[in-house]
Amino acid sequence: MTIRQAMVMAAGLGTRMRPITDTIPKPLVKIAGKPMIDYALDALAEARVEQVVVNVHHHADQMEAHLRNYRGLDILISDERDALMNNGGGLAKGLKLLGRDPVFVMNSDLFWIGETPGRPTNLQRLAGFFDVARMDIAMLCVALDKTTGHNGRNDFNLAEDDRLSRYNNAFANGVVYAGAIVMNPSILEDAPDEAFNINIYYDKSIAKGRLYGTMLDGHWLTVGTPEAIGEAEETIRTFRAFA
Fold this sequence. Notes:
Blueprint: E1 5-9, E2 30-31, E3 34-35, H1 36-46, E4 51-56, H2 60-68, E5 74-79, H3 86-95, E6 103-107, E7 110-113, H4 122-129, E8 137-142, E9 147-148, E10 156-158, E11 164-166, E12 174-183, H5 199-207, E13 211-215, E14 219-222, H6 226-242
Parallel strand pairs: 1-4, 1-6, 4-5, 8-13, 9-14
Antiparallel strand pairs: 2-3, 6-12, 7-14, 8-12, 10-11, 10-12
Keywords: Nucleotidyltransferase, Transferase
InterPro entries: GlmU-like, NTP_transferase_dom, Nucleotide-diphossugar_trans
Protein name: Nucleotidyltransferase family protein
C-alpha cells in the first residue's frame, strides 16, 4: 500500500524542555543541526507522502513560518491556538483536513536513524504491513535496547501474530511505541470534539484484536529534556561514524 497523506503531532507545550521552549516550540529544537520536526517530515517525503497536516499551538507563528519554508510536501495547518486538544482531540481535528484513505500519524519529537541502506524505509514497510481488512491501526515498534532517551519501560507486548496488547511483564516480547502509526481515519468518526487521549482508541483496537505492530529498522531517539540533546547527538555521531 502507498500512503499519500499524514499528520504530524506538533502542538505540545514542551514543558520538560524548558527553558529552551520558553522561546521556541519543541519541534523546532535542533538535534545535530536539524529541527526535530524535520526528521519526521523528511521521513514522510522519502516515503512519497504528498500532503501533511501539522497541528500548532505553542509559538504557533514560528511553527507556521518554518513549515511554509519546508519543500517537498503540501503542508496544511490545524490551528490549536485557542485550545490544546490533547493527542486524540488534535488528531481527530487534524484528520478532518484530509481524505478518508489510510494515513500516517507521527510525533514531531520522536525519530530514528540507521535504517538499512537499499531496503524500504520504516514508513514504507509500515505502509506495506498495514491491512485495512484486519487492522484499525498498525504501529511502528522498537526494542528497548535500540532506544536513546527513553524512560526504560515497554509500552506493549507484540504477539507472534503481530497483534499488540498492553505491556505485561509476564509475557514475552515487550516493545516500545516508536512514534509512527498507519491508521484508518474512520475509527475516529465517533470521536468527541473536545480534548481526549488517543490511548482510548488504542485500547478499543486492542479489545477488537485490530491493533498490530511491526518492528523498526535502526535506532530510535526521543529528546524530552535539554540534557537529552547531547545524548541524542552523541548517538547520531556514533551511527554516522560507522555508516
